[in-house]
């Protein structure tokens, strides 16, 4: 039976070599059927060499719409069989990724780069990349090979909403599907990671096709950031992040956004800074110098838009209480930059619908460690 699979793979390789895409699609269908029917999947997958899958990915733009769907289905199937079987000893070795795996390092990197090279097929490439990252070994390689940074660039400079949004889906999967892995990698690359992440947050509108694209990019990046900082797995990252006065200024500026939703998402990051009982002196000083403006601003923040959101109202009251209780730190070091300019005296008081992380989570995250 395995010889039949080998024969189809050889025919498929020949069809790709001669650019006979009709034959390619036909053989892809046959191979998918064989893999679905066989119970001894491991040996069959070994015969579906990674170079063949790489060539299929490379030739995806040359195939018609239905053929692309078939190729994506085949590569996804191989991924599931390769990394989805928890009983497979192969998937457990080295975190599920070996140089001989059909899901090769080259293939993973190529998928990420193809996002930008062929925007029309970004959704196809995104499906495959996210499918592969179900395996810890693949996620680890995606992180170690800096695939994330390729996706950051796409999210920041994406030509359209679909492209940027799909890139963000992949970013989120790589970082949070295997949370402990993602958290460890971010912590080990903290400065570089957040430098590049803030480039997305602070991108100027003239760098993107439209103001709407900038809004989408900022909203998604703020939402992912708040979700991570409020997740216990990312505790050490949160504690380090909220000790930065520069990061605090970023989110105070976002509280002044003309977008209600951006304001709302920024608040969920800002509240972690405010609720932290162990603030660094520079962070405390900025909040103290701006406390009156912030308290006044928060008093009408997102009123009446979110008057029925009890959790948000509780969060807001907690932050106001923390700000009112602030005392000037003994440390006399002046924060870098003009702290008073980080205030929110001109902030819009509009708001919008977005998912909420509660005060309880904020308090737990802030008081741990």
Task: Give the topology, please.
Elements: H1 2-17, H2 21-37, H3 41-47, H4 50-58, H5 65-83, H6 89-92, H7 105-117, H8 122-132, H9 136-144, H10 147-157, H11 161-176, H12 179-188, H13 190-201, H14 211-229, H15 235-241, H16 245-254, H17 260-275, H18 281-289, H19 291-299, H20 310-324, H21 359-367
Helix pairs in contact: 1-2, 2-5, 4-7, 5-8, 7-8, 7-10, 8-11, 10-11, 10-13, 11-14, 14-17, 16-17, 17-21, 19-20
What does this molecule look like?
The protein contains 21 helices and no strands. By secondary structure, the chain is an all-alpha fold. The chain folds into three domains: 1-81; 103-216, Alpha Horseshoe (Leucine-rich Repeat Variant), CATH 1.25.10.10; 242-369, no CATH class. The chain is elongated, with a radius of gyration of 24 Å. Residues 86-100, 333-341 and 343-369 have low confidence and may be disordered.
User: Which class do the helix and strand fractions yield?
Assistant: mainly alpha
Main sheet record: none
Query: Which residues sit in consecutive blocks of at least 5 with pLDDT less than 50?
Result: 86-100, 333-341, 343-369
Tell me which oligomeric state these chains represent: single chain
Rg, alpha carbons: 24 Å
Amount of helix: 55-70%
Domain count:
3
Number of strands: 0
**N-C termini distance:** 57 Å
Please, what is the average pLDDT?
Answer: 80
Fill in the keyword field for this structure.
disordered C terminus, Leucine-rich Repeat Variant, 369 residues, 21 helices, single chain, mainly alpha, 0% strand, 67% helix, 3 domains
In short:
This protein has 369 residues and is mainly alpha-helical. Helices cover 67% and strands 0% of the residues. The protein contains 21 helices and no strands.
